[in-house]
Amino acid sequence: MLLEVKDLHASIGGKEILKGLSLTIKAGEVHAIMGPNGSGKSTLAQILAGREGYEVTAGSVRYNGVNLLDLEPEGRAQAGLFLGFQYPVEIPGVNNVYLLKAALNARQKAAGKPEIDAVSFMRLVKEKAALMEMDQSFLSRSVNEGFSGGEKKRNEIFQMAVLEPTLAILDETDSGLDIDALKVVANGVNLQRRDDRSVLLITHYQRLLDYIEPDYVHVLANGKIIHSGDKSLALQLEAEGYDALMAKAAG
Amino acid sequence: MNLDPKNYRAALANTLKQDADAGHPEWLLPIRNKALEQFLKQGFPHTKLENWRYTNLAPMSERSNASVAQPVAVSDAIVPATDSDSLMLVFINGMFSSHKSSHSATLANGVVSNMAAQLDTDGAEDWLRNSGDSDLAQLNLAMTNDGAVVQIPDNTELAETIHIIFSNTAEANVFPRVIIQLGRNAKATVVEHHISNAACVSTAITNISCGEGSRITYQKLQEEHAGSFHVAAQTIKLAKDSHCDIVNIDLGAAIARNDLRILLQGSGAAAKVNGLFLVDAERHADNHLRLEHQAPHTRSRAQYAGVMANKGHGVFNGMIHVAQTAQKTDAALNNKNLLLTPGAEIDTKPELEIYADDVKCAHGSTTGQLDAVSLFYLRSRGVPQQIARNMLVQAFALEVVQQLTSKNLREYIQNSVEQRLNELGAVIET
Fold first, then answer.
1. Within its chain, how far is the Cα of B87 from the centroid?
2. Contact assignment for B392 to A91 by CB distance below 8 Å
3. What is the rounded CA–CA span in Å between residue A85 and residue A134?
4. Domain with B88 in it
5. Is residue B381 part of a domain?
6. Of A150, A159, A162, B230, which sits 20 to 30 A from A101 (CA to CA)?
7. Is residue B62 part of a domain?
8. Looking at chain B from residue 390 to 429, which residues have their Cβ under 8 Å from any Cβ of chain A?
9. What is the chain A residue with the closest CA to B371?
10. Pairwise CA distance, residues A137 & B321, whole Å
């Protein structure tokens, strides 16, 4: 078991957002969590990545046999967790490549391995940029500064490719993308699918799942997973809408 | 603050003896005597003066009083790396070091030289006497041993950067002086770099005058030893259509005070100023900036960035002053600050004083902490919190550092900033 979320309750500013969420992801699986706005999708992603400000009031999250909630955000990343942001942050003055090098070296250090040498690093970075059809000039630019919406999302998946996570949580990676950008991003994710890498896709629309085929689809509403199924569930949702499922769950 | 006049007169006697030994002109003696008496009458500025409200020079006064007349032991000096093609003027404990300096410029009708070698030239009395009206200018005038003189003739561009280094090795009292004069349409880049590896007391005066249509790039870097006192003042006069591009980086000293005064005296004159001060440990850095628009169609852009940590105390006072005749002035002044720890402090006051009615002036100040979302983003990539914080502070500082024209100097200062942040990281608990 790679990730095991059990009966997770979490609140922010006293308001409960997650109300008993459970989810299990095995190595190599791709899961999609779908749900209406405000259902708690992004909160789940933020809590798993270690964002401050959320209070976990009950439940547990185990990742690779450890209590994930005990780890600092950097510790989670070093343990192989990656969060693709819904709104990637612009950080003027911090160079893209510099960030990746610091991130990779921190992971190497945490694993008791030596720092990656400059030549191998640049080779890796250039190879992954080519994979994401990214212009080399992006590498030396400040993190996301002045990037278009599509470029930002592409940069997220590029970072994922370089950091090679064990579990990638992609939060609304499809939002704000036109169809061409979506194809590039989805293709980037597909190329990274491996038996020892799991992906948790968080999305509002079924559209992304046309391009990245999930093994499982879950519907999140009101802070709980109310329904799980295979990829056909996404199509059913697209046809019937969330309301029908939520009514069924309530009834 | 009690000054002991006896000590200062003894120090002056030493200076006058050096003047005599060096064969300096006789006009120096009355000027120095008068300047010292004036200084002794005023003493060091005190915190009851509005201009010095936040900066208490009592510790500097005390040290100066005790050590001003003491001889200085010379040891190995730090000479920071410069561009290989720059013209270097190096001063160790206030004295010109010809063997550490690079060749003098072979400039037709121009001068790039140490000051002592220029005192017997025409006009020397004027440029030395004209010390500006900063509070310690008279002390500097009385005591200054040496410094740099840069005179660029009309229509001449100096390709090489002039790198003036004031390096102090011992607990010295130094009084550096820099004189820069640009003729019409002349162009030069000057770096004034203060650095020390022992606690020193430095009172530095720089006067820059820019002829019509000239361009000066002037970059002052202050990296004095953590036990040092550094009080410096620069006056920059801009004639018609002349431009100055200034970088002022303040990283060292226990107490640092910098007064930068820019007078836009001719129409079309323009000033660009980028300042950075990084104040950690129990350091104190006070930056005063005055932009005096005295002619129509003048333009200024000033931006100061402050980083405060631990018990560091930063002060920024920036003033845009627009005279009645300076219609169509276009001025903007901004100070933004980062407070990295709860004990750190900034007192910031951007001010406008406008006597003309058709101007465009803006001023502002912001103070905040590191952006939490950016910090989380970096950490979510695996970057440890302390390194992520440093990356963000360096990015903040970079806006100013990248204004430095020399790549070597940019890297050098980036390293200095990084080193200070690393030292800081050991102190800040995560």
1. 19
2. yes
3. 18
4. 5-265
5. no
6. A150
7. yes
8. 391-392, 394-396, 398-399
9. A91
10. 43
Give me the phi and psi of B49, to 5 degrees please: -80, 135
Give the N- to C-terminal CA distance of chain B in Å, as an integer. Answer: 41
Which chain B positions have a beta carbon within 8 Å of A89's beta carbon?
A: 371, 373-374, 377
End-to-end CA separation in angstroms for chain A: 32
Residue B307 lies in a domain: no
Q: Report the domain count for chain B.
A: 1
Residue A12 tokens read as 């922010």
Query: Which whole-number Å values give the CA distances from B75 to A182, B64, B72, B396, in the listed order?
Result: 65, 20, 9, 36
Q: Which two tokens stand for residue B204?
A: 């530095």
Strands (E), A96-150: 142-143
Q: Are A43 and A13 in contact (CB under 8 A)?
A: no
| Phi, psi for residue A91 in degrees, rounded to 5 | -125, 85
The partner residue sitting opposite B381, judged by closest CB among A72, A77, A142, is A77
The CATH number that domain A3-250 falls under is 3.40.50.300
Would you call A93 and B373 a contact, using CB atoms and an 8 Å cutoff?
no
Q: How far apart are CA B403 and CA B274, in angstroms?
A: 8
Is the Cβ of A71 closer than 8 Å to some Cβ of chain B? no
* Residue whose C-alpha is closest to residue A89's, from B366, B398, B372, B340: B372
Which is it for strands A66-67 and A54-63: parallel, antiparallel or unpaired?
antiparallel
- This complex has an ipTM of 0.96
- Six-digit token pair at A9? 């309750």
Half-sphere exposure of B19 (CA within 13 A, CB side): 22
Residue among B317, B312, B311, B289 at smallest CA distance from B301 = B289
Considering the domain boundaries, does residue B27 fall inside one? Answer: yes
Four-CA torsion A58, A64, A65, A66, nearest 10 degrees: -60
**B372 touches A: beta carbon within 8 Å:** yes
pLDDT tens for each residue of chain B, 430 residues long: 568 999 999 999 999 999 999 999 999 999 999 999 999 999 999 999 999 999 999 999 999 999 898 887 777 778 887 777 789 999 999 999 988 888 655 677 789 999 999 999 999 999 999 988 899 999 999 999 999 999 999 999 998 999 999 999 888 999 999 999 999 999 999 999 999 999 999 999 999 999 999 999 999 999 999 999 999 999 999 999 999 999 999 999 999 999 999 999 999 999 999 999 999 888 999 999 999 999 999 999 999 999 999 999 999 999 999 999 999 999 999 999 999 999 999 999 999 999 999 999 999 999 999 999 999 999 999 999 999 999 999 999 999 999 999 999 999 999 999 988 888 765 554 4
Q: Considering only CB atoms, which chain B residues are within 8 Å of A156?
A: none
Closest of A91, A233, A106, A70 to residue A155, by C-alpha: A91
Q: For B392, name the nearest residue in chain A, comparing CA atoms only.
A: A94
d(CA B130, CA B392): 43
Non-local CB neighbours of B1 within 8 Å, separated by 6+ positions:
B43, B44, B46, B57, B58, B61, B62
Q: Tell me if A103 and B383 make a contact (CB, 8 A cut-off).
A: yes
DSSP-derived secondary structure letter, B76: P
What is residue B157's DSSP assignment? B
Alpha carbon distance B425, B384 (integer Å): 12
Q: What are phi and psi of A59, to 5 degrees?
A: 95, 180
Whether the CB of A92 is below 8 Å from some CB of chain B: the reply is yes
What confidence score (pLDDT) does residue A237 get? 85
Where does B328-384 have alpha helices with state H? 372-380
Amino acid at B118: Q
